[in-house]
Amino acid sequence: MVSAADDDAARGTVPRLLFARVADTPDSEAYRFRDSTGWTSVTWAEVGSRVTTLAAGLVARGVGPGSRVAIRAATGYRAILADFAVACAGAVVVPVYAPTRDEEVARLVRHCDSALTVTDRDAGAATLHLDRLADLAADGEELLAGEPDAVASRMAGLTAGSPACLVYTACDDGGTKGAALSHGAVAYVARAMAELGMLGPRDLQLLWLPLSHVFGRALLYVAVRVGLPTAVDARADRVVENLRSVRPTFLGSVPHVLEKIGAAAAADPAALGGRLRFLISGSARLARDLADRFEDLGVSVFEGYGITETAGPACVNRPGAHRPGSVGLPLPGTEIRLADDGELLVRSPAVMTGYHADPGHTAAALDEDGWFHTGDCATIDGDGFVSMRGRKKDVFKTTTGKYVAPHAIAERFRVLCPGAEIVVAGERRSHCVGLVFPGDRGTEVQASVERLNSELNRWERIRRVAVVELPLLDEDRDEAGVPHRARILERFADVIDRLYDAGR
């Protein structure tokens, strides 16, 4: 039996993980993707060959060891090839959520000092469009003809402690910070998920989740570890269609998309494809009634918990250890405990090494004993199952899995419409709505909301607002005069419900 230490040495970096799979099962299906003729498959050997030439192309174009390369693209086969190629060139992947505003993308690229941006949209300076990967491969082939070890030497220079990716996540103040995740962290998550015994090489994954989030990345890597094929299509609106055509055995998703799948299955159980064994839910809280509906159809939904800084799931439910309403037990090798105030702390090989160029946030999040302070409050029952209880600070997730900082949005609104207040709702919903208390600026509210939305990312935008003519009471504000969001949302819960009902 191979020890964990020996296994980590053999597969302890992303290139070793990938090429160990290529060596073990070269002729097995690796990925399935759409082209003009329908679904097309490629083998692990084909993936390995393509990744090598693309990595060589990056080397030829001056991407050095440890250089950062941003990838702003929807999840797809070409984006996966580019992702692996960056790693095999010894560089650091910086995945960027594709719908992010151009101004924010430019800021992130500057912050991480990216040498190159790979994208599937309009290209500018220092960018490589995914349509031009053939040109990059041609450069790589030319380099390898003269330097056949150009990529192998880059891969050999990587260790488990080398940075693999820099994943940006939201701050409580509405900004972002980049979590640096090592090759060892990525490889550990893949191994720990495989050790759960939930997956085998005969499984087939349908992957639509963004690779800019660690949930999608963890599912990408565990498929390599196990050697199972993955059908890739980024279109969330095609998931139901793809369940029928691909007939996967498992799927990872956020609750918002699971709701759509559940609705389709309620009308016709064949919508699930006929081979689906289970679903994995993450990135936002799962409604119990939704999980129950899937259970009635014979498909378990295993909810898990993980955040950017843990490189993927830290806890997950699993067959034989499933407690609905909880996020499950820790992964093998992951330690958890609660701080005195109920904050969940995590210590594992997957925890980030720190935030890029941000020692202040790093020191606040990682203590001297290696515990990561998640900022999430939780409980742990006598059997070790973890249940989440909300954020310590004022950041929430929508059911699409995106973070929203409501206080930061409210502060922007105050600048646009002085004297007025907006209270943002959206937790456990698919989008945000707002209550506006106009003060004496009633005629300016709608225009101010439109200007506010123009400054926000798509998932932060306020879809509908209700103008509340009642004044805020003294008890509705804190000592600094800032509205107590939770108190106001509770007081006007019926108004919030009507705003969501109006959007159905």
List keywords for this structure.
504 residues; Rossmann fold; GMP Synthetase, Chain A, domain 3; 9-stranded mixed sheet; 4-stranded parallel sheet; 17 helices; 36% helix; 23% strand
In words, what does this structure look like?
The mean pLDDT is 93. Helix 2 packs parallel to helix 9 and helix 14 packs across helix 15. Among the domains are: 145 residues, 3-Layer(aba) Sandwich (Rossmann fold); 98 residues, ANL, C-terminal domain (GMP Synthetase, Chain A, domain 3, 2-Layer Sandwich), CATH 3.30.300. It has 504 residues and is of the alpha/beta class. The relative contact order is 0.09. The chain has a nine-stranded mixed beta sheet, with helices on both faces. Strands 4-3-5-6 form a four-stranded parallel beta sheet, sandwiched between helices. The chain has a four-stranded antiparallel beta sheet with strand order 16-17-19-20, with no helix packed on it. It contains 17 helices and 25 strands.
What's the gist of this structure?
This protein is an alpha/beta fold and 504 residues long. It is 36% helix and 23% strand.
Q: Identify the CATH class of the domain at 1-30 and 44-158.
A: Alpha Beta
Radius of gyration over alpha carbons? 23 Å
Largest sheet: 9 strands, mixed
Lateral arrangement of strands in the main beta sheet = 2-1-10-9-11-12-13-14-15
Query: Average pLDDT across residues?
Result: 93
- Fold-level CATH name of the domain at 1-30 and 44-158: Rossmann fold
Proportion in β-strands: 15-25%
In percent, how helical is the residue content?
A: 25-40%
The unreliable regions are none
Query: Helical region count?
Result: 17
- Which class of secondary structure composition applies to the elements? alpha/beta
What general outline do the C-alpha atoms trace?
globular
* CATH hierarchy: architecture of the domain at 1-30 and 44-158: 3-Layer(aba) Sandwich
Task: State the end-to-end distance.
Answer: 55 Å
How many beta-strand elements? 25
